[in-house]
Amino acid sequence: xxxxxxxxxxxxxxxxxxxxxxxxxxxxxxxxxxxxxxxxxxxxxxxxxxxxxxxxxxxxxxxxxxxxxxxxxxxxxxxxxxxxxxxxxxxxxxxxxxxxxxxxxxxxxxxxxxxxxxxxxxxxxxxxxxxxxxxxxxxxxxxxxxxxxxxxxx
Amino acid sequence: xxxxxxxxxxxxxxxxxxxxxxxxxxxxxxxxxxxxxxxxxxxxxxxxxxxxxxxxxxxxxxxxxxxxxxxxxxxxxxxxxxxxxxxxxxxxxxxxxxxxxxxxxxxxxxxxxxxxxxxxxxxxxxxxxxxxxxxxxxxxxxxxxxxxxxxxxxxxxxxxxxxxxxxxxxxxxxxxxx
Lengths: 154, 178
What we know:
heterodimer, B: 7 strands, 20% strand, elongated
């Protein structure tokens, strides 16, 4: 019980720590702060891969946060900010890649998987319906053989 | 017909296995530079040896060069220093240094003690040019062609193998174009 409790406390604190990054910067409004936080969570750190620049302690992540903050104060749109960082560090920093020729398969995979699954389910259903209505049939030859086998075993 | 269908899961597992196996051991830390094919970003920074000299992107015009990003706080830069000396003095490669987020005095002491492989060193104390170049960890080495266009970026230490396999072919093709 105590273990569970301390685990809960740990996770509660961890939540606070990760939300702290926007507090380092000064914002006029809460909306701005939330916008910054959201952007920092959508951008991926090129050094600490699989961390966003909000979570990463790498110096480069701090530089990227500074740039996001600076551009926000300059009145840049979210798209401008993301594009400016993509121009320097590549498509990699986007957690959500653009839909283009190179990423088409990536985006299409879930649709292909769902469609494939539906096809298989449809196939199974159709097949079971077809065999439901009628009893398994044997040709005259097979019937004669079966009867012969049965007679032999008796 | 039915029998063949039974082999489908095996086939699917094989295909997936081959795809996943191809990914094993792949270097995921090295990212291709977003700047390949683009000019060196505009900058105005001082020369490391002489703070009165202002350098800008014109520095990269007229000749194929290497741009090596280094710093005294970077242990791997210490590793590759001897190889840079070898490139500069034995192979006659023109190397421009970018002293990234570093202290001027420390950097000058380093070059005094270990030798200076660089034709010119750009001092970038705040890392602004480094940021514009998409540098995410020193050392990094760029091949810049005679028109100041970035041709290639190598992340990590430069050694004889990297020179032979990666840098030299790019340099040769850049030289042929100019």
